[in-house]
Amino acid sequence: MTLPSFLICGIQKGGTTALHAYLATHPDVFVPERKELNFFDQNWERGRTWYEAFFQAAPPGVAVGEASPHYQRFEDAAFRIEATVPKARLIFILRDPVARAFSNYNYNLGRGQQDPSQTFEQSIATADGHARYLDKGCYLRDLSRFAEVTGRERMLVLFAEDLRRDPTTVLARAFEHIGVDPARWQPTTLESNATAVPSSPAAQRALYAWGRVRRRLQPLVPAPLARATRGLRSGALAALPSSRQRTPLADETRAALEGFYAEANRGFADWLRSGREGQHPLPAWLEPKRFRAAS
User: What Cα–Cα distance (Å) separates residue 178 from each residue in 20, 95, 104, 288?
Assistant: First the structure.
């Protein structure tokens, strides 16, 4: 039976959709049409047969993979990956954690999963908002935990800023990591996946109210009907007037969060330099004055 030879493990709103789409354009790579199988976290109980079914169409001799950005944070994921696909190569694509957190808030706002009466600042002041938005940017904690279980040599860390600026160079590193020839890839341009938020406050409130109802009903709805409901919801979201122009993050909020992540990720730059990532420049948000090792 076919199982993945590589996994994109994180992080949400860090560039996984773009990376997944880029890798899928290589002739020697197979990924399922469905992204976020979430087998090693929320769908573990469905069993290995359920998971294997997504990869049966893969031709022989290709790299087979999937992208589920919550694996990075789910504490049992590394152990489950080690037990199920112990030779799979692991890719983590990260982003400036402050920008990632704010993007995650707006993403949830656009999907009816965030109370629109709460500003970003009000949300992250709550325990729930801290867990949903800020905790995902504690990269050193999550990646070092993975390394302890799976081994550092199986892991490749990339950065969304680099992928956006120089996709060919970044993808060459990814292709080499998963064992396919970068020279066989034809450069391509992807459509933007920027987060859109309904421009009408009334639409935002209606989306949030519907989201609350849907979450309460979800356990009672048969799976086929739930899939149909998701389709209707996606169509409704697409029909709403929306905008990709968002209110910018306040300077004082950015400064406060930069200080938070400087502590949370203290030593992360050195951790990266100890691996293959040390052969390449790190992004500006990881400059030593912000994420220096503890003295």
Answer: 13, 21, 28, 30
